[in-house]
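Sequence decides. Consider this:

===
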Amino acid sequence: MLNIVVCVSGGGTNLQAILDAMDRGAVTNTRVLAVISNNAGARALERARDRGIEAKVISPRQYADREAFNQGFTAEMTALSPDLIVLAGFLVRIPPQMVAAFSGRIVNVHPSLIPSFCGVGYYGLKVHEKALERGVKVTGATVHFVNEGMDEGPIIAQKAVYIEDGDTPEILQQRVMEQAEWILLPQAIDDIANDRIRMIDNKVSRRM
């Protein structure tokens, strides 16, 4: 059984996609231990509580400085002892000590085709705003393992989504979620839970 902790900052639609996939058997051998948010008002926490899942608020604002937060957040995660940490729209940088402690056991979903529109400053709606500004014809989403860099870890899966005439950042964001994020992230969790994918020596190893 793969025990996971899901980290979310906002509405938790990716969390819901994971829970729905578990309900219909598309994600197997998996249990959500807890949902963590840096935002006490996040809808994701309500989604967790509605399912009887532990919901925790851990925010940099609760600590004296960033280093104290890094140590505190890592300690909280270590106490939960998950097999996998899932970043599902989590807008806080993961502490380097947590990356080291959970090497190969943290995954993130990003709303673009990495390496496009990723890195520092590219998150949430901003990613889609930049994609439309640039005039690209295809965007999408990426699920990757997390390393010390920002959106630089080994890529697990990507899915393309076409940009359409009249798209706004909000419309594009919704389409990318529906056609890519909500598909890729549950698939990646199921592959990891069933030992089809793992990270070895900073590379994705696949066993089908």
Observations:
- The chain is about 35% helix and 25% strand.
- Residues 2-206 form a domain with the Rossmann fold fold (CATH 3.40.50.170).
